[in-house]
């Protein structure tokens, strides 16, 4: 199968700190790929480079054969990549459905229109996306008072608006109860199959990762230390060292976050 | 050569005052993030108090003691202002405090008038430093040399205070990271008060020390304001060496400008500032501001919805009443109401970028006055028919906003505000000093509407149509995809950029659009008055609009309109009294303290509390 995304020798340093160091991996079509690693491993930094929020120190990112390095996030988005953020980014002054409508207006290149009423545009499409992520009943609520888990769902709905080929999800289940985590991840897995899009996601909950990922990448201090199937990673001594040797990783994180 | 050196020395001597005042402003901003517009007033008070003290304290000793005491007295006044006026509003949204400081300016202006009278006072010469010294054959006042010698010591003293003392460590910590100071267990309120004392003292010293050179008058507060902002911005907010270098640069440039380019002295300063900011956006010694993720402080705004039937009917009824005014109102009432409508359109156009876009512009008058001047110039020089000039005015103002917006867009927050101020001042000084073309101080006169609009009532209807029409257009666009994209860019630039929105370009377009509508209000203005003067481009004009937006409530357009109408009518009423500034200033301060969310925001809150309108779900 052809890779959708190919990352070659991607690196980023902040001053002396090598946050991401010569990372290589590919994402195949329809793949649900997990990127895991302890806090500060460089996962979000990786995402930021893929989406153009950060400029890599070196390396290339090929998406459908085209190098994305140096492009703006908005252009990378048009090429068919969507993302959600670790710290949610939504439009706090709008209603839930307006957040989705905004993305649809942008997708249909209507953001410079001054004549129509925005709140009437693409309303039914927006509602469909909200239905998909289970937010339809909260469509008219003010975004600023949403629960954190619902904000994560809203971000997912926004990211689906332009029918992406590849979705980057930074901790899609953070701040959710275990049952909700499971349902959101199942939802994501369903979308992957239904729309045939690829998903690269980071996650600290290993049950979620082992339960749904097709393949797993392990990042530690900016280095990619493992890349394989769920079973391979589960039994990889190096990964166990990082996680178990480094203390009970994600329990402590949960407490911290 | 001799002349050159002499001028260099004059420039450096002038820099002493500028540095003192500007460093105070810079310190206050660095720690409290308050843009203290009243700083020029502290400077003026320093001059007047110093003058009074010098009348009773004789001799060389008396002179310098008076300077010091004047500084300390102004410091105490600064503390009073901080405790009474600013403390209650620290929690208000960013930049809201500047409205309070503007109220302080008005109050101090009238108090100074009451105490010292309207006449300029001539500063006493410094005892013992009265003569001149010849430097390379050129005369240089001894007092200038004394100032040049003193300034480095002041700089060093301040530097020592900031770099070596506990207060200094706190000040630096607060400048870099405000939350941290709270974590250090410092009483933030007293730190702020302390810094205000220091900053105001410096301004007072600056005012007193320049007495032998410039004396004291009631205009000096505004006259120095632009210059000290320029110095602080060029040097970098919060940087003392930066303030010194910038003060020296500006002062020297000014002295040479007077000699070699007398037509451009005012322009020069702002050109330098614009150039510096375009090369180094955070000033010569400033550090980049780490912008927060969310543009708005405090409670996020609520979703907007187009008005319901009831509100529409109400607005239609209001417009209907306005249309009836000529039937029952006097000519004067029509003229006044036309003025109010024009001002409301101007304020509403600023609200578009400030409220929806989160872009605080200090220089919106450039487009109001710009539109007025475009129309006036067309009529004066090309005999353009009024109708054509009226249409070209908003286009011209929009074009100016297009250029200025492009230059300012790379900056954010207070730096953006400062750069817009700089460009507005640039345009003002161009118009002011290019007398042959623009009429300079005498303005352009005889700019009357076409024959069919002659008379109070026809022009009143014309204003009603275009003024209300402009406001309704602004309101409609706010609800259009463009208005939504503008709000999205403010709410979360990160998400907007990641979903295909070029946020800077949206903001630039909004800036241009708002500029064009400000130009429309300017065009209405010039034909109603028949003339235009540089005052329409002044800082004061921009502030008028800023004040009504903050007073009326940033969050809704109706706030800007209600605020605009209240201020215009209040001004018309108050200016009949002698001490109207004092009254208006006190009213402004009062509103700021009592209603930190603006008049309309606070009224809505109160209405919700008593259950007239439904509150936001989830609120309790
Ligand atoms: N803008 C920045 N400037 C300096 N250092 C940074 C910056 N962004 C990230 N870092 C550093 O880079 C390293 C990787 O950070 P990153 O956010 O990518 O980790 P992560 O794997 O996403 O961690 P987490 O699980 O906590 O989200 C960290 O040490 C972080 O402190
Ligand atoms: Mg992360």
Largest sheet of chain B: 2 strands, antiparallel
Structurally, the number of domains of chain B stands at 2
Task: Evaluate the radius of gyration of chain B.
Answer: 25 Å
What average pLDDT do the residues of chain A reach?
87
With strands numbered from the N-terminus, the spatial order across the biggest sheet of chain A is: 6-7-8-3-9-10
Strand content of chain A: 15-25%
Number of helical elements of chain A: 10
Helix content of chain A: 25-40%
What overall form of chain B do the CA principal axes indicate?
globular
Query: How does the helix and strand content of chain B classify structurally?
Result: mainly alpha
Please indicate the percent range of residues of chain B in DSSP E strands (runs of 2 or more).
under 5%
- Greatest interface and its residue counts? A-B, 46 and 38 residues
Question: What is the radius of gyration of chain A?
Answer: 18 Å
Task: List strands and helices in order, with pairings.
The complex is a heterodimer of chains A (257) and B (620).
Chain A: E1 3-14, E2 17-28, E3 32-36, H1 43-51, E4 58-63, E5 66-67, H2 73-78, E6 81-84, H3 96-107, H4 123-133, H5 148-160, E7 166-170, H6 178-195, E8 198-202, H7 206-212, E9 215-220, E10 223-228, H8 230-234, H9 237-245, H10 249-256
Helix pairs in contact in A: 3-4, 3-5, 4-5
Chain B: H1 2-32, H2 39-56, H3 59-86, H4 97-116, E1 132-135, E2 138-141, H5 142-164, H6 166-176, H7 178-183, H8 188-209, H9 211-214, H10 220-235, H11 240-260, H12 265-279, H13 309-328, H14 331-356, H15 365-382, H16 386-408, H17 413-433, H18 435-438, E3 444-445, H19 456-478, H20 481-491, H21 493-498, H22 503-529, E4 531-532, H23 539-552, H24 557-574, H25 580-594, H26 598-609
Antiparallel strand pairs in B: 1-2, 3-4
Magnesium ion binds at residues 43-44, 86, 170 of chain A.
């Amino acid at each position: 199968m052809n890779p959708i995304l190919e990352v070659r020798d991607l690196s980023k340093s902040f001053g002396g700190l090598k946050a991401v160091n010569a990372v290589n991996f590919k994402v195949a079509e329809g793949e649900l790929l997990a990127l895991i690693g302890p806090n500060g491993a460089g996962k979000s930094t990786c995402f930021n480079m893929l989406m153009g929020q950060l400029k890599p120190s070196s390396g290339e990112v090929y998406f459908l054969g085209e190098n994305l390095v140096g492009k703006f996030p908005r252009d990378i988005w048009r090429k068919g990549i969507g993302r959600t953020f670790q710290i949610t980014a939504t439009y706090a002054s709008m209603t839930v459905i307006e957040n989705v409508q905004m993305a649809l207006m942008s997708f249909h290149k209507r953001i410079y229109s001054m004549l129509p009423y925005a709140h009437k545009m693409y309303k039914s499409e927006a509602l469909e996306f909200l239905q998909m992520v289970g937010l339809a009943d909260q469509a008219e609520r003010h975004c600023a008072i949403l629960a954190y888990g619902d904000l994560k769902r809203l971000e997912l709905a926004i990211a689906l608006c332009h029918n992406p080929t590849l979705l980057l999800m930074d901790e899609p289940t953070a701040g959710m109860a275990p049952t909700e985590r499971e349902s959101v991840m199942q939802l994501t897995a369903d979308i992957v199959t239904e729309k045939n899009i690829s998903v690269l996601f980071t996650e600290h909950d290993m049950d979620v990762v082992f339960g749904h990922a097709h393949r797993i990448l392990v990042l530690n201090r900016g280095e990619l230390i493992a890349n394989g199937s769920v079973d391979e990673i589960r039994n990889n001594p190096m990964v166990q060292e990082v996680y178990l040797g480094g203390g009970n990783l994600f329990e402590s994180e949960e407490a911290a976050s | 050569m001799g002349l050159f050196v002499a001028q260099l020395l004059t420039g450096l001597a002038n820099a002493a005052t500028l540095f003192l005042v500007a460093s105070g402003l810079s310190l206050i901003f660095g720690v409290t993030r308050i843009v203290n517009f009243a700083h020029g007033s502290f400077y003026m008070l320093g001059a007047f108090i110093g003058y009074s003290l010098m009348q009773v304290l004789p001799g060389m000793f008396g002179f310098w003691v008076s300077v010091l005491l004047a500084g300390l007295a102004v410091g105490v006044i600064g503390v009073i202002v901080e405790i009474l006026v600013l403390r209650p509003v620290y929690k208000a949204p960013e930049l809201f405090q500047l409205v309070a400081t503007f109220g302080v300016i008005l109050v101090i202006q009238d108090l100074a008038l009451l105490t010292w009278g309207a006449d300029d006072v001539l500063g006493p010469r410094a005892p013992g430093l009265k003569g001149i010294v010849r430097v390379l054959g050129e005369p240089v006042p001894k007092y200038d040399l004394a100032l040049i010698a003193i300034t480095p010591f002041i700089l060093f003293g301040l530097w020592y205070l900031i770099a070596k003392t506990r207060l200094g460590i706190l000040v630096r910590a607060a400048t870099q990271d405000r939350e941290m100071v709270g974590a250090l267990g410092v009483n933030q309120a007293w730190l702020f008060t302390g810094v205000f004392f220091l900053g105001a003292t410096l301004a007072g010293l600056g005012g007193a020390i320049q007495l032998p050179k410039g004396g004291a008058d009631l205009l000096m507060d505004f006259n120095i304001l632009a210059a000290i902002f320029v110095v602080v911005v060029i040097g970098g907010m919060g940087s003392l060496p930066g303030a010194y270098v910038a003060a020296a640069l500006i002062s020297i440039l000014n002295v040479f400008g007077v000699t070699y380019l007398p037509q451009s002295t005012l322009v020069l300063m702002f050109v330098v500032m614009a150039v510096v900011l375009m090369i180094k956006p955070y000033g010569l010694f400033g550090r980049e501001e780490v912008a927060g993720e969310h543009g708005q402080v405090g409670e996020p705004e609520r979703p907007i919805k187009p008005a319901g039937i009831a509100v529409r009917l109400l607005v239609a009824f209001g417009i209907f009443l306005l249309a009836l005014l000529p039937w029952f109102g006097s000519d004067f009432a029509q003229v006044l109401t036309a003025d109010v409508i024009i001002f409301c359109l101007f304020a509403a156009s600023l609200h578009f970028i400030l409220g929806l876009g989160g872009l605080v512009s200090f220089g919106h008058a450039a487009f109001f006055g710009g539109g007025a001047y475009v129309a006036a110039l067309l009529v004066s020089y090309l005999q353009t028919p009024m109708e054509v000039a009226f249409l070209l005015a908003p286009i011209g103002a929009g074009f100016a906003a297009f250029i200025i917006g492009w230059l300012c867009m790379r900056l954010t927050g207070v730096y953006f505000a400062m750069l817009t101020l700089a460009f507005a001042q640039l345009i003002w000084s161009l118009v002011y000093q290019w007398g042959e073309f623009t009429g300079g101080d005498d303005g352009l006169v005889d700019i009357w509407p076409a024959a069919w609009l002659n008379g109070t009532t026809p022009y009143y209807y014309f204003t009603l149509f275009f003024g209300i029409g402009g406001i309704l257009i602004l309101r409609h666009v706010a609800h259009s995809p463009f208005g939504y994209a503008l709000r999205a860019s403010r709410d979360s630039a990160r998400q907007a950029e990641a979903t295909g929105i070029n946020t800077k370009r949206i903001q630039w377009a909004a800036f241009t659009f708002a500029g064009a509508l400000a130009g429309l209000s300017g065009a209405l203005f010039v034909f109603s008055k028949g003339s235009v003067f540089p005052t329409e481009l002044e800082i004061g004009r921009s502030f008028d609009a800023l004040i009504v937006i903050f007073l009326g409530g940033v969050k809704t357009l109706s706030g800007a309109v209600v605020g605009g109408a209240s201020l215009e009518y209040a001004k018309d009423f108050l200016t009949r009294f002698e001490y109207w500034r004092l009254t208006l200033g006190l009213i402004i301060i009062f509103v700021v303290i009592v209603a930190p969310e603006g008049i309309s925001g606070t009224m809505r809150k109160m209405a919700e509390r008593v259950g007239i309108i439904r509150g936001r779900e989830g609120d309790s």
